[in-house]
Design a protein that fits this description.
With about 325 residues, this protein is α/β, with parallel strands linked by helices. The protein contains ten helices and nine strands. The protein starts with a helix and ends in a 5-residue tail after the last helix.
């Protein structure tokens, strides 16, 4: 079954909620990973895209996302700082470009970036575009207005990041200060401004396999370009701080599932790679073709040099 469906996807078929998708949850994991890897290679090639992020403004976030160390509603001892200066942001972008990274993103805590903080970040993006022409610019600044997305596009940003986090059904269980619809509106506004969209979520929040399917299907419906998949690292002080961590097999099945349902997107490893052996090496054979490298926002990431070495030794091109 896996091989037949994979052949059909490679030939142009796209699975929808009208299809029987139980095979993605119940089928043999080895076969599922193998065919997801074949879809990835046939439709995306053998390249892996690496990106880095910098925490441009940290902590004291007004939103109550139950997994997040940066929420002001929780007491985690997470780092807090105001918006970084332009030169700090530009220098971080310059270092990433020199390390051979493909994309660089400034991420800011808070419901939305506005006022002088937004204007200062726009100036930094303009300077990055002038001085770092070999790297793509991404942005993650919350639930922005239409004119703000247009401003980002004009200053050289090409992709906007806005995770939907989970399924529509499960979203109220993880956040009450904004809605799933707010997230979708953000995606639509970014697309309307001519930006590509990076949107995924977190697994291990107590969701069901059906929730993971629904999340993947929503992202397919919105034709997002990049799907970062985070595996929850429970952080003490958050409401989800005592949740059990996922097994490697659960993470790998989820990656393969997302590849079957989003066959041409970047399926991007994000936080939680430490839950897998060899920095998630097997994930790239199960459908992943991108990764965030370097430090995450509130958890440790993977060293850029180690990632490049691991991928090259595995036969991938950076």
């Amino acid at each position: 079954m896996f091989e037949k469906i994979a052949d059909e996807i490679i030939a142009g078929r796209r699975l929808t909620q009208e299809d029987d998708l139980s095979f993605l949850i119940e089928g043999g994991l080895a076969e599922l990973k193998r065919e997801a890897g074949r879809i990835r290679k046939a439709l995306c090639g053998n390249q892996v895209e690496l990106c880095t992020i910098i925490n441009g403004r940290a902590g004291r976030c007004s939103e109550d996302c139950r997994f997040c160390a940066q929420s002001a509603h929780h007491h985690t001892g997470a780092q807090e700082h105001t918006i970084l200066e332009e030169d700090e942001l530009v220098e971080a972008c310059r270092r990433s470009e020199k390390a051979g990274v493909r994309r660089f993103s400034v991420v800011t805590a808070g419901r939305a970036l506005s006022g002088e903080d937004f204007d200062q970040t726009i100036r930094a993006y303009r300077k990055m575009r002038e001085e770092c022409r070999g790297i793509g610019l991404c942005a993650s600044h919350g639930l922005l207005e239409e004119e703000q997305f247009e401003g980002l596009q004009r200053c050289g940003v090409t992709m906007y990041h806005a995770n939907i986090e989970t399924s529509r059904r499960n979203f109220p269980n993880i956040c009450t200060t904004h809605t799933f619809q707010d997230k979708l509106t953000c995606i639509r506004r970014a697309k309307a401004a001519g930006l590509h969209v990076c949107s995924g979520g977190i697994i291990g929040l107590g969701e069901t396999w059906e929730d993971r399917l629904d999340m993947a299907l929503t992202l397919a419906e919105y034709q997002v370009d990049s799907i970062p998949l985070n595996a929850l690292i429970p952080i003490p002080g958050t409401p989800f701080g005592e949740l059990p961590v996922l097994t490697e097999d659960e993470i790998l099945r989820t990656i393969a599932l997302f590849r079957f349902l989003n066959p041409t997107a970047y399926v991007r490893l994000a936080a939680g790679r430490t839950l897998m052996r060899d920095s998630g090496r097997e994930a790239f054979f199960a459908g992943a073709n991108a990764a965030i490298t370097g430090d995450m926002l509130t958890t440790s990431g993977n060293n850029m040099r180690q990632d490049r070495m691991m991928l090259r030794e595995s036969g991938f091109e950076i």
